[in-house]
Amino acid sequence: MSPTPIELAEIAKVVRRDVLTMILEAGSGHVGGSLSAVDALVVLYWDAMRVKPEDPAWDDRDRFILSKAHAAPALYSVLARRGFFDVKELMTFRKLKSILQGFPDMQTTPGIDASVGSPGQGLSIANGCAIAAKRDRKEHRVYCLMGDGEAHEGQVWEAAMTAAHHKLDNVCVIIDRNKMMGDGNTENIVALAPLSDKWRTFNWHVIDLDGHDAERLSGALSEAASVKGRPTVVLARTVKGKGVPFMEGRAEWHDRPLTEEMYEEAMKALA
Predict the structure, then answer these.
(1) Which of 203, 218, 249, 265 is nearest to 17 (CA)?
(2) What is 121-165 written as a DSSP string?
(3) Fewer Cβ atoms within 10 A, N terminus or C terminus of the chain?
(4) For residue 205, what are the β-bridge partners?
(5) Which residues contact 33 (CB under 8 A, 6 or more apart)?
(6) Can you give the pTM of this predicted structure?
(7) With 80 as the cut, is the pLDDT of residue 18 above it?
């Protein structure tokens, strides 16, 4: 039985606490974009995706590509809490010989379907997985979580055209639309709006919603699975640094380390 929206929200709170603790322990890491992506990751792994944590390489599993690779702390916490590996591993984040490096590595971390790092490449990888699934007559779906700043990369739009051309209805992109990147507001750097219209023009099915609403996210991913003949993009409107008031909506928290005092204040907010 799938968790209720209230249960998903509680899991998200645990994951946000993990993210803060991991980054404090490591002394570095991308905190703002990790916190904004948590709700989408929780809904994917607890509600939408077919996975077997005890068998991470199960051939019929749904695939997941973390295109915004700097949000790795959130994904690692989700994988650990879902049972892919021991939760104790989270405290080794970014340390030598850890299975949890700064960006996801499919060679070292159970549950990682693609090694990623350079912005804008995730959708191209997702397309490859989706085309392979169709050629092999497999039913699994491919999910890709992107940051909105990645839409500044030309490769994203080449991949969007490719997915539509091949009618990859087994591809679902979720865009973490927090409107912030390391250099500031995305709309001041190179405006992305109207982002929904741009994806529609590329012949994608578009769903626009509150990216912190677990119930709506769950419904959107079910809707995406029912769409035939074209891929789906979910524009998830989120808040950078979600859950920690002094981080929310502030670009400087893209990759700023935490002090002990900041950590204690943030954990109180997530209690």
Answers:
(1) 265
(2) -HHHHHHHHHHHHHHTT----EEEEEEGGGGGSHHHHHHHHHHHH
(3) N
(4) 232
(5) 68, 70, 71, 147, 176, 178, 180, 240, 254
(6) 0.97
(7) yes
